[in-house]
Amino acid sequence: MSERATAPSPLMGEGWGEGGSAKLSDTGASPLTRSASPTRPLPPGERRVNGRALVGTLGKALFLAVFAFMLFGPLANLILWSVAERWYTPFKLPVSYGLRYWEVVFRPTGDAMSSLATSVWIALATVAVALLVSVPAGYALARLKLPARTLIMIAFLLPQAFPSVAIYINVARIFYQFGLAGTVTGVVLVHAAHGLVYSVWIAAAAFAAVDRDLELAARNIGASPLRTFATVTLPLAAPGIMASAIFVFLESLDEFTGTFFVGVPYVTTLPLLLYNASMGGNYQIASITALILLVPSVLFMIVIERFLRADVLSKVGQ
Fold it and tell me: Structure pTM?
């Protein structure tokens, strides 16, 4: 049989030689390897965008870390001091832990429980006095066309507009002339004057958020103005009024300056006990007292978030 030269097929390409065998290039790479393109580097613009995103993420993480440290750092220090029985330099952490000082604070015959009872009683009385003023005042400011409404609203801000120490020194002098210095009544009046800014402004916003058409509908079916207020207006404004009462309660519970100038030495509240313990170097008692004051504040703020609706908040100051 005669030998015939086999022509390379066009499908084989130039890399195929005689006998159908493939020819490798000088570099030893296969055709598939030669055809694969290397990984494309990112353009400078995309590298800059990725770098900015990384810097932004690191900046947010750093900000959150600093914020968490500022928020929870003092709280962690209070917790450490509350369970530290011995802690002195050069140790960074307490030498010994225990609950001995908690037992001292919650001892029935101790000063902490009586001071707490006094603080709660004063706060409840302050809420009652503030509501007696803020409910009618808030309704009048929200519903009546008063000629000096703006000035009246600003007048309730005056206790917050000036340094409290200067105000309470003069209040203590006046109360001493009327026999109110060193009494629970004098402390309640001072706390109520300080808390009216919350109760009046929030009560006015709560009444302003009530739909007038509901009141008109009650009047059209024969309800008197007093009955309309008691059965329609007041129940609808009750969540805002409850929130203002909680604000006043917390303000009174944590008030120190007014109690110090008006109530000392006969009225001792929990903030005064905290001050005396810290000034005396008894940081365990001071830390436990601070944690006790912190608990109702956190719990009541959760309740306030439920009561204060967006429509009430939008009416504050209007």
Answer: 0.73
Instruction: Let me know if residue 189 belongs to a domain.
Output: yes
Domain hosting 271: range is 104-313
Q: Copy the structure tokens of residue 99.
A: 């609950």
DSSP H helices, the chain, are: 31-35, 44-83, 100-105, 111-143, 149-155, 158-161, 164-177, 184-208, 212-220, 225-228, 234-254, 257-262, 270-279, 283-307, 310-313
Please say whether the beta carbons of 289 and 277 come within 8 A: yes
Residue-wise pLDDT tens digits, 31-76: 444 444 555 665 555 556 577 778 888 888 999 999 888 888 888 9
Six-digit token string for 33: 């390897």
Measured distance CA(314)–CA(143) in Å, rounded:
16
Q: Which two tokens stand for residue 154?
A: 């600003």
> Do residues 234 and 277 lie in contact, with contact meaning Cβ atoms separated by under 8 Å?
no
Do 170 and 231 lie in one domain? The reply is yes
Q: How far is CA 94 from CA 81, 84, 89, 102, 187, in A?
A: 8, 6, 9, 16, 38
Quickly count: other Cβ atoms within 10 Å of residue 318's Cβ: 11
